[in-house]
Design goal:
globular, 18% strand, four-stranded parallel β-sheet, Rossmann fold, 122 residues, alpha/beta
Length: 122
């Protein structure tokens, strides 16, 4: 199995909105240089989730972990994302698509946000 990582964010009309998400991709690439990683957006920005998923499959990935870069699992994560993943599963039946929890619901992320809100670096 060749693993890929697909980060999924909302998107915005202002291209500067994507800068923190692009920084996440850069940090992942620095920490795991051989891991194919793509950033995708729900709306307003490119690539879309299907486009980024197609690109990972074209790179040879057949086990793709999808990480919603949302603070919580609201409507986009509960409704829109499963529909998009169903399309990818149909388009690429030989690939496994694993949906991970919304990043804001991961305990270490919640802890990091609390530390940052308190003004603590560690």
């Amino acid at each position: 199995m060749t693993r890929g990582l697909l980060l999924f964010a909302h998107g915005a009309r202002d291209p500067r909105w994507a800068l923190p998400f692009e920084a996440i991709v850069q940090r992942i690439a620095a920490r795991a240089p051989g891991l194919p990683v793509r950033l995708a957006f729900l709306e307003f920005m490119a690539p879309t989730l299907p486009e980024a998923g197609d690109a990972l499959v074209a790179q040879g990935c057949d086990e793709i972990e999808v990480v919603p870069l949302f603070l919580g699992a609201g409507g986009h994560v509960r409704k829109d994302l499963p529909e998009l993943l169903a399309r990818l599963r149909q388009a690429h039946p030989g690939s496994t698509w694993l949906l991970r929890p919304a990043i804001g619901e991961v305990d270490s992320v919640v802890d990091a946000m609390a530390r940052a809100a308190l003004g603590h670096s560690n």
